[in-house]
Amino acid sequence: MSEKPADYLATNGFESKTPFLIGVAGGTASGKSTVCQRIMEKLGQQHKEQTERRVVCISQDSFYRTLSPSERLRAERGQFNFDHPDAFDDKKLLAILKDILAGKKVEVPEYDYITNSISPHRSHTIYPADVVLIEGILVFYFPEVRELFHMKLFVDTDSDTRLARRVPRDIMERGRDLEQVLNQYMNFVKPAFEEFCLPTKKFADVIIPRGADNLVAIDLIVHHIWDIMYKKRPAPKVANGTCNGTHLEVDEGNGRRMSGSSEDTLMAIDLIVQHISDYLRRSPVEKLPPLGISTSVPGSPQRSGQSGRPH
Ligand SMILES: Nc1ncnc2c1ncn2[C@@H]1O[C@H](COP(=O)(O)OP(=O)(O)O)[C@@H](O)[C@H]1O
Ligand SMILES: O=c1ccn([C@@H]2O[C@H](COP(=O)(O)O)[C@@H](O)[C@H]2O)c(=O)[nH]1
Question: Which DSSP category does 175 fall into?
Fold first, then answer.
C-alpha cells in the first residue's frame, strides 16, 4: 500500500481541489449506510484499498461525544438519548469536514455500539478523495455542518420498516435485547426522530423514498458522481444557497416529483437533465433502458455488456 502522491489534489480531477461532499441523512435504519454502500459498489470503490479510493464514506456515529461516568451508566441501562443533537460532538465533525475540504488526510474514530463509546485504539485514515459521503441521522441538523455539503440526500423510509430493521440489527449487531431496543425506540429514538431528524428533510436536494431499493434514485446519484469524477467538473459552490431550496423526490413507481425552486443552481433538475442528456448522447446500440428498469428500448437492440458507465 502506498500513500497518495503529494500532488494528489492537483491531479484528482478538481480544478477547485475540493472534494465533493455529500450528506446522507434519514432516520435510524432507513438505509443510509446501505445507500452509501450501493453508491460505492456501483462506482467500483468498495474493494479498493483505502489509499486508492476516489469515493469514501464516513459515519456521523464516529462523532458521538465522550460520555460522563453518570451518562455512561445511563447508556448501559438504555436510558441515554443517543438521538438528541447534544449526544454528538458537532464541533469535531465540523473540524474534520473542513480538513477534508482542505484536502487533508484525516483520522476518523471507530464507534463501538457495544460499549457506547469511541474505540480507543481503532480509527480509520481517510485519504483525500474526489467524493466524500457523510451519513448520519443528524448530519443536516447543525447549520455549520449542513452548509458544507455540496449535495444533500435524505433517505426516506417509513417508520414501521425502520423499526422492523432496527430491532434485529440492534440485537444481532449491537448487543442489545428486545426489551432494551423497544424501550429505547419508544422513549428516545422515535420522539427525537420527529423533533430533530425529520424536520431536516426540507434541507435535502434529493429525497430517496425506500432507500437502497430505489434503483432509479441511486443510479441518478451515481451518474452525477461519475460525472464529477471523470468529467472533471468543478464542485459547485456551497454556503451561498446554490444547492438549497430545490427538492427532488425520486420515486420509481410514481415518476419523479419536484417541489421548491431556486434562482441558483437547481441541483435536482441538474441531476435529471444530466441523466437524460447522457441517455440521449449514447448511440442507439449503446442506449440503455431507462435507469433501474430492465426493459428493452423499443427499436433498439437489447442491452449487451457494459458501456463503461456505472449501472
Ligand atoms: N432496502 C433494504 N431492504 C432490506 N433490508 C435493508 C435495506 N436497506 C437496509 N437494510 C437493512 O436494514 C438495516 C439498517 O440499514 P442501514 O443501511 O444500516 O441503515 P442506517 O444506516 O440508516 O441506519 C441493516 O441491517 C440493513 O442490512
Ligand atoms: O451508543 C449508541 C450510539 C447510537 N445508538 C443509536 O444508533 C442510531 C444511529 O445509527 P443508525 O445507523 O443511523 O441507526 C441512533 O438512532 C441511536 O439510537 C445507540 O443505540 N447506541
Answer: -
